[in-house]
Amino acid sequence: MSNDAVELSDEDFLVEDYESEEEGNLGGGKSKRKVAGVSLSSSSEEDEEDGSGDDEYEEDKKLQVYFCSRTHSQLSQFIKELKKTVFANEMKVVCLGSRRNFCINEDVLKLGNSTRINERCLELQRNKNKEVSKIKNVGAGGRIRRNKASCGCPMLRKHKLQKEFRSMMSQQGALDIEDLVHLGKSMRTCPYYGSRSMVPVADLVVLPYQSLLSKASRESLGLNLKNNIVIIDEAHNLADSLISMYDSRITLSQLEDVHSHIEKYFERFCNVLGPGNRRYIQTLMVLTRAFRQVFLKDDRSYGDSCRDTEKASGASGTSTSSMAINDFLFSLNVDNINLVKLLQYIKESNIMHKVSGYGDKVASFQKNWHLMAVKTEALCPVSKH
Ligand code: SF4
Where is this region: Disordered (predicted)? Predict the structure, then answer.
């Protein structure tokens, strides 16, 4: 591709072949080729991708204390207090947080919101691993054009620096998020992955609620609740945190965007997709179309049944209702879709990242094309006689 060095080609958005396994086996399908060892867990913020979890810390399992609190500032406060005690230097302490708090890659950080930061970081790790396998395939004497977008995060390129980061952490005692970010910046290595790789040897792990409450996060961090001690700070916040972890909201316009992105993706790639991918992507379209009906139907029934009540009560704008999951699926005629398998496909195939990446590319192409058209018109106005 002629423009390979500056931007991703359409093929970079092509999802890998997906094989579906037997019905009833909730192990479900799997990608033929694992995406570079990267696991996109449901909490895609937690993963174990860069291989920096070395064997060097393979020690006998020891008693660990997990201290968790709701916010990062509360965790930092706890570390500050801990530093005033003798324990700060006697115990190995590690403080965990989100990429948003830890990331030191300015290009990634300026994306602003946590989801985009997580996704970009994971994308960089995947691209790095793809690049490594490309180089291996070409062989020692071969030449390859390095794709600018495929270089991985510069803060993770030197494995040696991650090792040094861990040794500095051990020497400096209890460090809070700010300290770790400062250390990462001064060493030019990622504090997010640096701190996570310290978990196996830590006596005390200080972490946000979500990292402890989500099974996927616990597994990726190697946290084992059995025979260890868990301290929950301000436990009255626990119920709200659990609700917010498993609560999802979507608006009609978001749903329409998702549906149109999937449709465009399918139009572009349907001829090259394998049967497994084709079937699941079509199922996704059926589902998003059905979910849209909820809003549209809701709007109509809202008009019929709620307007009078609303007028009477003075409320405006929203109608609410709740349904059991099975009733909901039956009402939309999608009760025949195996949601467990579909979810598994979404996680394993990485389809949503491909779809949204391709959607962004199309949108940016359309925007540039529009700007160019406006400029051309300004430079060469068409005379109307
Ligand atoms: S590897 Fe670290 S510094 Fe790089 S993007 Fe991810 S979180 Fe940010």
Answer: 1-57
Mapped onto helix, strand or coil, the DSSP state of residue 190 is coil
Cα(36) to centroid(ligand 1), Å: 17
Domains delineated in the chain: 10-19+45-246 (3.40.50), 252-310+323-367 (no CATH)
Checking DSSP bridges between strand 204-208 and strand 93-95, what pairing results, if any? parallel
Alpha helix ranges (H) inside 84-190? 87-90, 99-102, 106-109, 114-138, 159-172, 177-187
Q: Kindly list the averaged pLDDT for each block of 10 residues, start to end, along the chain of length 385.
A: 50 79 47 40 42 47 92 92 91 93 94 86 77 48 44 87 94 93 96 95 94 90 93 92 86 92 93 93 95 77 47 56 88 93 90 87 80 76 58
Residues in the chain: 385
Complex ipTM tops 0.90: yes
- Per-residue 3-state assignment (H helix, E strand, C coil) for 215-266: HHHHHHHCCCCCCCEEEECCHHHHHHHHHHHHCCCCCHHHHHHHHHHHHHHH
Q: b/e per residue, 170-202, with b = 16+ CB within 10 A?
A: eeebbbbbebbbebbeebebbbbbbbbbbbbbb
Asked if residue 187 has its Cβ within 6 Å of ligand 1, the reply is no
